[in-house]
Automatic annotation (TrEMBL):
Source organism per UniProt: Poecilia reticulata (Guppy)
Biased composition (Low complexity): 293-303
Subcellular location: Secreted
An example Gene Ontology biological process: negative regulation of neuron apoptotic process
Database matches in PROSITE patterns: FN3
Taxonomic lineage from the root: Eukaryota, Metazoa, Chordata, Craniata, Vertebrata
Protein name in UniProt: Cytokine receptor-like factor 1
Pfam families, sorted: EpoR_lig-bind, fn3, Lep_receptor_Ig
Polar residues: compositionally biased ranges: 362-371
Record's keyword terms, sorted: Disulfide bond, Glycoprotein, Immunoglobulin domain, Phosphoprotein, Receptor, Repeat, Secreted, Signal
Classification via PANTHER family: CYTOKINE RECEPTOR (PTHR23036), CYTOKINE RECEPTOR-LIKE FACTOR 1 (PTHR23036:SF16)
Amino acid sequence: MGSNLTASCWVHPELGVHANSLFWTLNGHQLPSSLYRVLSPTNLSVTLAGLNASRQTSGDNLVCHNHKGHILAGSCLYVGMPPEKPVNLTCWSRNTKDLTCSWAPGGKGETNISTLYKLKYKLRWYGTEKECEDYSHTQPYSCSITQDLHLFTPYEIWVEASNRLGRATSDVIILDILDVVTTDPPSGVTVSRLGQLEDQLSVRWEAPPALKDFLFKAKYQIRYRLEESQDWKVMNDVGNQTSCRLAGLRPGTVYFVQVRCNPVGIYGSRKAGIWSEWSHPTAASTPHKRLMSCDSKSSGDSNSTLRRELKQFLGWVKKHAYGCSSMSMKLYDQWRVDMQKSPKTRNQVGKHRQMPRRKPTQTHTSSKRWSCFHSSQTRKKLLGRKRHCSMKMSDSGEDF
């Protein structure tokens, strides 16, 4: 491509046709006379400069005509590049039932004219050369050998490329089918919750059934992602077990999980093996995070009030010289009664709750009804206080 081409049209003198009456066409279009050169009364040449790739796979038709348009001579031009050596020849066997190989054109890949590729193979130490017949229609550079395969015997495999401008042959690879076995993705993949654990999921699967009768040690990989993300996280250290636990997940979130298999060491092969395709995505969600408070709106005010009451109670205990050993719910209830009898103390606590005043005869009864929620929580804190026997608030360290 990019070079010049000169073609000549010579007519027999007996025809009585002069070269000046001739003209040229390329793919049916007449070429300008400025490209012509009369070499003799019976010979007309044409020069095409800077040729581009052929416009059609069948080539470009350059034709010489007489003055009446009759065809005197012609040629089919193929403008392109000879093929380069095919590269990246790779083969694999699915469950030892076939052998599929793929490759890539050499160089830039574009020869600009039709190029034929042939996959050829033979047993290394004996046997005749054969050509693969089952070429893929969806993948342009691949072919599958499906018959007369031999295990425990190495093969020599190569690719030949050819077009009208030349031919080239790839490097020869040598392989044993058992060294390039891959398999179907694991089946029966399930993803489930682990009770109420908010950050974990359990993944289980079954080994590929096609290899159940083969001696090998499979290893597995798991990958998972958030529903709204396309970024996968891969677990490489699953080993040959058929279950795994995913930890450190986000609570209340949907995850997609996939598993794949590598049949390592099939029939004693020492090769690394080839990973299968990933299984179909399986979705599951982690449990939502449980709230620690029943009333989230009032939790802030409740904690503040409880802390104030607990501070007053411990101050009352200290004032009356009660020891830690005598702390009990009965002592707490006694403090509640004393608090209601003391207007000053009642006002200190009650002003935060804005409770209406009650008649003196109803003081004790209303106290129980008024503090039913906070008292139960203060009781729980009191039990924690008794264990440590400290007169300091746990969060602030204030003395009473």
